Structure formats: structure tokens, C-alpha cells
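INFO batch 0412 | record 1 of 1 | parsing
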Amino acid sequence: MKVKFKGRKRWQTGILKVFILVLIVVISFAGTFKILYDRISISIDNNTYLDYLVNDAVSKFSLSDISNLSSTEFLLKYSFGIDDFNTGINDIDLTTPVISEIEEKEDTNKSPTVYIFNSHQTESYRSDFVEDFNINNTVYLASHILKEYLNDLGISAIVEENSIVDVLNTNGWKYGSSYKASRILLEEATKENPSLNFFIDLHRDAGSYERTMVEIDGQKYAKLMFVVGLKHENYAPNLELANALNERIVAFSPELSRGVLQKDNAGANGIYNQDFSPNMILIEVGGQYNYIAEVNNSLKVFADCLYDYFEATS
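INFO prediction complete | emitting C-alpha cells
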């Protein structure tokens, strides 16, 4: 009886030692992982982030998770497949690519026809996790997103890469001369690309989040508004174009559109370079409190509306 008791005691002691050893290994691993994980510092440029936004490639893990999940949550999700926990990030879902796959309709290897620019190039959107990645959430980034959508739809588009601020500074102009500065770039672009025949000046408005955001079928969008200047003689085609595009946005969802704003009042610019072409539009995409993913969702709709308009008028 004593021999059996001693044997059983030895067996229990051995199990306890193994358990303690495993516990020490797990705690050491978790502690080391947390220290290294908390020290992760990621820096990517706008082009890399744009690639993240506009591609559906499935990666091993999401960039946003590194920023938003604790080390324990990260281990649970990617080591054990447990992702049913509250991260505290409820405003926006960036754990999957925010742009859905678009079927290519035409070959985009051709001369550009659409020119996208920003008279107010530094207008920014709400900061979210991407501020840790040195990303500037501006209308300039939004222009590149729109360009990618149009190209995927077979509409060849380019974005003005030159700095409006540099043009202003070179000429000794103030911010109020931004449209004058963008006119210089606009004219230069058409000289270099005679095929350009459609022009988009992309802005964002200033207003409350409630005024510039709408949720449609569980997805958040930045509201869209067109601005037409009436202080030049040939504004009618610009107004007709804005109305035609706005009708298509309303057809998608009336709540997404903020309508077509006609400006001829004193103190307003009233032209917005729209005398340059009957195919010149100024669009306000959301406001300063919108997230870039909401802007992205709206730009997809806008690109589809442009495609539909080109198809109907070609």
C-alpha cells in the first residue's frame, strides 16, 4: 500500500511540475509578446495606404488591428481565431478592405479623359487610427481614391499632383486666390493632355457630422453636394451637368445627396473655374468630421453615377 501511495504521489508531483513549467512558458511568451507588440511603430505613406484602401487582397492580418487591438486581443484573434470581443472601436469598421471589388468594363490603357484636382488641396477629414501611420486624410487622398474607382470602371482619369500651396506662394497670393492658382494647373494639364474633356474639383464642406454623414443599409457615407457658380454667362451647361449627376445619386439614395447649390450671391466666388468647360463640376464630399472610409463609400457611388452618365451621353 505504501509503495502504491508513493508512486501516486510521485505522479501527482510530476504533473504539477509540468503544469508549472507550461504556465511559466505561457506567461513568459505573453509578457515578451506584449512588450514587443506595444513597441510596434508602423509608418506608411499615402500611396501605400491608398493601396490598402482600394485592394481586396486578403492579408494575414489587418493594419488597423495592430493599432486598435491590445496584445491579448491580437493573440486571441490571430492565434486562436477568437474575435468576439469589444475593442471599443465602434464608429467605423476598417478590419476589412473598405472598397469592394469592381468588375473592369473597359481597357484603361488610353489617354486620360477625366482630370481630378483640388482647389483647396489641404482640406482634411477626421483623424482616426491612420494618424499613427503618418497618413494625411485630405481631399487629395480622396481624389486618388476616385481616380482608382474610375479607372476600374474603364474611365481613364488623372489627379493633379502639383501643390496649390506652391503656386500660391510662388505668385505671392493668399488662400483666397486658390481658384486662380488651380486655373493655372488646369490650363497646363489640358495642354499636356489634350484628351481631357471632363473636370472634377473635389472639396469637402464644413459642417456638423450629423449634417454630412448618412447611414444607408448599415453602412456610413459622406453626403455629396454639387456647387454651381452663376457669375458667368455660360453656366447653364454646368448646372445641367450637376443636376444630371445629382439625379443619379438621388436614385441610389435621396439621403446621400445634399442637392445642387447655386451661388451668385455677393461675396461668393460665383465662377469656380466652371467657365473653363461645360463639363466642369465642383463636388463637396462630406465635411471635416467624416472618416476617410465614409468618403470612400460615397466616392464609389459617385464613380458609378459618372459611369452611368457617360454611358447615357456617349
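INFO post-check: The first strand starts at residue 114 and ends at 117.
INFO record closed
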